[in-house]
């Protein structure tokens, strides 16, 4: 441990050098070790705010963006975003710094919930968090929305499972069984694994879960799996020193380059162990990528459920994959007609609005480029291949005039679906007044010379496009809009949710593309 400080109540920062004992065979920081550090640091933040001991209730939507290697420095920043009656949400941000180049990158972002546990039979009501900055106010507001999502998660999941059951039994001749991926491990809780009250550290359980899940995933992909995300670590009950923990892991489903592994954790004390009376204390779902020795992604085989339980787990993985995106693009709560549902550290905001059968999405970001240059770059859809991974090919079919063109676009295939294609009309309009935005409007059209093909699923864009507002001579605000019907949402959710931040990632690539082409020249420039 190199350095630890806490600048204000509920804030804790920890720095740690990655040593060989923390790393895997590739020399990269073990995900299990990182989870232990994240939990320990977040728990310190929670206890600093509460003034009493705290226990981990859950840690959800953990995303792993970068790998840390031996010799690099890990910085874990944690902050209590909001205190409820007896629980708190703690935000966790992990950075890695290369000591030679001084380059810093984000490793992981997560949110954890901790419960205050006063000594004895006393009760405690937590004090509100003091909001000192604009970011504090924003995270405080978003924390209540994330809490509502957590509380409503099970109902949303059951609804998706009910819809999935209506589709009938799955059958794929080329699929493989997951029976050989079942792994079981037993751990005895000893004093180093627990806090001063004898309760097992949540981070220790997470590390054991990651280990057994990694073994399960490796049996399917026949390579070394890399942990990319965790849907949720949910702690249903405590375990203490002397308990035996039984970890059972099995592959639930695969999605082209990723695999979901479910882990079920049971606890036994001595008497329960003899009588085989288990306590279910934890469930977790982990997403791994399969890579070869060169770090390239491998395509995974499809799964063929062979039992009723296997079918349940297969469909459950699809439902969780959908929820990861639905929680960001669907207005789950009927009393919110317009929700700000995601705001990143990079000042990218995402809203949704649902009315009847229509779902509208808005993405807003600030870009350091003059508005007229952003307009030229975004109105030329042949350039979109440089930043939008959902565009495979794009060509101009017909130029109606300088401001209106018809394009033919294809998108790469998603798991379980054919590639998609679009015939779209892109219209661009310049502002009449300085206060008005540049406009790029997109909608699908029918062209007799380009009929639907059996090779593609012909898709439709109802209404989409960009509004570009000038902020200064060197910066602008770009707003992206898209409107879809509810029938498209399940496909949209199921196939773009490989990362829960898919929309954000595309927006970041768009902004990077615009700022790298700040000197772009076009005949349309005003």
> What is the string of helix and strand elements?
EEHEEEEHEHEEEHEHEEEHEEEEEEEHH
Give the beta-strand count.
21
β-strand percent reads 35-45%
Report the radius of gyration as a whole number of Å.
25 Å
Strand-pairing-aware structural class: alpha+beta
The major β-sheet equals: 11 strands, antiparallel
What's the end-to-end separation, in Å? Answer: 57 Å
Number of distinct helices: 8
Mean pLDDT: 83
Cα shape: globular
State the helicity in percent bands: 25-40%
Low-confidence stretches: 1-8, 328-346, 486-501
Major sheet strand order: 1-2-4-5-6-3-8-11-10-9-7
Subcellular location: Cytoplasm
Domain HotDog ACOT-type: 8-120, 179-294
GO cellular component, one term: cytosol
Keywords: Cytoplasm, Fatty acid metabolism, Hydrolase, Lipid metabolism, Repeat, Serine esterase
Task: Please describe what this structure looks like.
A hairpin with a 2-residue loop joins strand 13 and strand 14. Strands 1-2-4-5-6-3-8-11-10-9-7 form an eleven-stranded antiparallel sheet. The protein is globular. The longest helix is centred in the N-terminal third of the chain and has 32 residues, at 134-165. The chain starts with a strand and ends in a 10-residue tail after the last helix. With 526 residues, the protein is α+β, with helices and mostly antiparallel strands. The protein has helices at 31-50, 134-165, 202-221, 270-275, 308-329, 371-379, 489-496, 502-516, and strands at residues 3-5, 11-17, 54-64, 73-83, 87-97, 104-116, 183-188, 224-235, 244-255, 258-268, 279-291, 339-343, 348-355, 358-367, 393-399, 404-411, 420-429, 438-444, 457-458, 463-472, 475-485. Helix content is 25%, strand content 36%. It is built from eight helices and 21 strands.
């Amino acid at each position: 441990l190199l350095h630890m400080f806490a600048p204000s109540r509920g804030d804790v920062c920890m720095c740690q050098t990655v040593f060989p004992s923390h790393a895997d065979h590739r020399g990269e920081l073990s995900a299990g070790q990182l989870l232990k550090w994240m939990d320990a640091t977040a728990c310190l933040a929670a206890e600093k705010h509460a003034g009493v001991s705290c226990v981990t209730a859950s840690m959800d939507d953990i995303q792993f963006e970068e790998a840390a290697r031996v010799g690099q420095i890990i910085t874990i920043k944690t902050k209590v975003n909001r205190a409820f009656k007896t629980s708190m949400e703690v935000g966790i941000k992990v950075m890695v710094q290369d000591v030679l180049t001084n380059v810093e990158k984000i490793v992981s972002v997560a949110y954890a919930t901790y419960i205050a546990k006063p000594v004895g039979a006393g009760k405690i009501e937590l004090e509100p968090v003091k909001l000192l900055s604009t970011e504090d106010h924003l995270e405080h507001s978003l924390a209540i929305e994330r809490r509502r999502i957590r509380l409503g998660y099970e109902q949303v999941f059951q609804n998706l499972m009910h819809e999935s059951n209506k589709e009938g039994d799955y059958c794929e001749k080329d699929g493989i069984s997951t029976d050989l991926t079942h792994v079981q491990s037993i751990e005895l809780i000893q004093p180093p694994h627990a806090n001063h009250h004898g309760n097992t550290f949540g981070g220790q359980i997470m590390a054991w879960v990651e280990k057994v899940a990694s073994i399960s995933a490796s049996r399917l992909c026949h390579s070394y799996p890399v942990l990319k995300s965790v849907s949720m670590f949910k702690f249903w009950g405590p375990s203490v020193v002397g308990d035996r923990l039984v970890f059972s892991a099995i592959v639930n489903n695969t999605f082209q380059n990723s695999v979901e592994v479910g882990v079920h954790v049971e606890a036994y004390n001595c008497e329960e162990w003899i009588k085989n009376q288990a306590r279910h204390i934890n469930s977790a779902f982990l997403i791994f990528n399969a890579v070869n020795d060169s770090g390239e992604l491998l395509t995974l085989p499809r799964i063929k459920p062979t039992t009723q339980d296997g079918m349940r787990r297969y469909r459950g993985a699809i439902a969780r994959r959908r929820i990861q995106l639905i929680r960001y693009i669907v207005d789950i709560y009927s009393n919110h007609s317009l929700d700000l549902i995601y705001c990143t550290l990079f000042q990218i905001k995402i809203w949704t609005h649902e009315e009847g059968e229509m779902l509208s999405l808005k993405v807003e970001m600030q870009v350091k480029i003059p508005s007229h240059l952003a307009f030229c770059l975004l109105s030329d859809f042949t350039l979109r291949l440089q930043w939008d991974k959902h565009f495979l090919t794009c060509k101009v079919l017909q130029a109606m005039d300088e401001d209106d063109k018809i394009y033919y676009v294809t998108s790469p295939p998603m798991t379980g679906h054919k590639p998609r294609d679009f015939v779209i009309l892109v219209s661009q309009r310049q502002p009449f007044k300085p206060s008005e935005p540049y406009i790029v409007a997109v909608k699908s059209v029918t062209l007799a010379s380009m009929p639907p093909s059996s090779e593609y699923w012909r898709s439709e864009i109802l209404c989409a496009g960009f509004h570009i507002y000038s902020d200064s001579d060197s910066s602008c605000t770009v707003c992206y809009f898209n409107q879809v019907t509810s029938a498209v949402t399940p496909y949209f959710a199921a196939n773009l949710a490989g990362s829960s931040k898919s929309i954000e990632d595309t927006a970041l690539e768009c902004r990077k593309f615009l700022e790298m082409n700040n000197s772009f020249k076009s005949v349309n420039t005003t």
